[in-house]
Amino acid sequence: MTESFAQLFEESLASQRIKPGAILTGRVVEVGPDVVLVNAGLKSEAVIPVEQFKNDRGEIEVSVGDDVEVALDSVEDGNGETRLSREKAKRARTWSRLEQAFEKQEIVKGIINGRVKGGFTVEIDFVRAFLPGSLVDVRPVRDPSYLEGKTLEFKVIKLDQKRNNVVVSRRAVVEQEYSAERSELLEKLQEGAVVKGTVKNLTDYGAFVDLGGIDGLLHITDMAWKRVKHPSEVVTVGDEIDVRILKFDRERQRVSLGIKQLGNDPWQNIARRYPTGSRLFGKVTNIADYGCFVEIEEGVEGLVHVSEMDWTNKNVNPSKVVHIGQEVEVMVLDIDEERRRISLGIKQCQSNPWKDFGDNYNRGDKVSGQIKSITDFGIFIGLSGGIDGLVHLSDISWDIPGEEAVRNYQKGQQVEAMVLSIDPERERISLGIKQLAKDPFSAWIADHPKGSIVKGKVREVDAKGAIIDLGGGVDGHLRASELSRDRVEDARTVLKVDQEVEARFTNVDRKSRTIALSIKAKEIHEEAEVVSNYRTNETSAGTSLGDLLKEHIGGSQDN
């Protein structure tokens, strides 16, 4: 009884000395599917859930006989059993290590396992810490997904166990590493050298690459010789890549990098490989309002301007002609090696309807078509091959002014016309409607030799002269100075509208299509004839020359 009482007394004292939260060393007695039995030298063995002994892969980390650290939850619960916790023991040890790391500025390891407002959560052996977004790296990181799930190094910058608050910084570790690596790297960096780096961050204008202590900028224009819309087409965050150092500013510690410079420049000798006028196949890579871009070889793109896509539609929608990825035949129109620009044409690889029309029709041929449009300067007629010919206002009618004659036509009307000229280079075809009929002006000139006496009726008259209707839509011009040998100040004192006159046809201007008339010239000519006849007949007649002239003048005035 005495020994039993002494034993109970010792156990009671031991129980009083050990308080909840204390870290004890116990031995694994049994490992079951759901629980682990641990003897920590207390009143009873403790049952701990097996989950507290599993690692990240779900494997049980202990076996029977292993010594493990556990935390005392309570000496006796409501059932008189001792409650221990393996998880709390781990957490307590972690807090102890965190306190030491905080005091001595040591590095701890943890895993970024989630995102929260303003940053990320980091798991450090059962203790959750907070990593502010600004302390992830030395540069702002837009997409830190490549860091998630990885074991990384951190420094503890704030610690409060009572509030369960731990703040860590990866940036502090990176800066410490960079300061050492940067010094070594700066010694080795040289323009033109090829180095390895890791893509850290992407922007719209390029990517930042960690060279191991210093970041370099890989601009989007230096990623590939071909057009790159966004850096993500070439690299992704976390990629390890080879880059060439293009520029290095030691003083400002700025490095410009390039990937495309690792290979040969495809633009070298481009004009020799693709001479102007050569035809080749390429792939459509981009479509814009002003045309499309066609890749003719890796890294070399040319522009097909919208005006070079279709012979007949100069303002066609490019997306209605081609689509991205389509293989098209193009002709090289121009190359500017210095500005790295190539002008290409699609329509030049197709039949030219303007040239075809010139091959099939000659000047003077008759054509027919539908009126496509009527403008201030003429009528456009649709022709074969989808092209248009222009009938200028001046070529609509011989006798009606163009502005008036065009009113007799309307859009959609089928008309005939004559080919006047063809210019395939300027893509112009001139047509004429009036040329289908005989030119009344030319016909009149043919029927009336210069110097002949003609008759007409006054159509218009003003002080300076009159317009004489000679018939058939032909007008003659009679100036006031040509009305008489006597001076006439105002033609209206001599002539009236609808008055019939006789005059001599004195001149013609085919370019301006004007016929000059003269009553004065007619009278002078007739007087000369009278004199000539008098001389011929003076021996046989008793009439004097004066009488003959008076008779002639009187007759003329009667007319």
Automatic annotation (TrEMBL):
Name of encoding gene: rpsA
Protein name, per record: 30S ribosomal protein S1
Coiled-coil annotated residue ranges, if any: none
Taxonomic path: Bacteria, Pseudomonadati, Pseudomonadota, Gammaproteobacteria, Steroidobacterales
Top-rank taxon: Bacteria
InterPro entries: NA-bd_OB-fold, Ribos_protein_bS1-like, Ribosomal_bS1, Ribosomal_protein_S1-like, S1_domain
Gene Ontology biological-process entries: translation
Family: Belongs to the bacterial ribosomal protein bS1 family.
GO MF annotation list: mRNA binding; structural constituent of ribosome
Record-linked SUPFAM superfamilies: Nucleic acid-binding proteins (SSF50249)
One of the record's GO cellular component terms: cytosolic small ribosomal subunit
Keyword entries, A-Z: Repeat, Ribonucleoprotein, Ribosomal protein, RNA-binding
Signal peptide limits: none
Domain S1 motif: 21-87, 105-171, 192-260, 277-347, 364-434, 451-520
Function: Binds mRNA; thus facilitating recognition of the initiation point. It is needed to translate mRNA with a short Shine-Dalgarno (SD) purine-rich sequence.
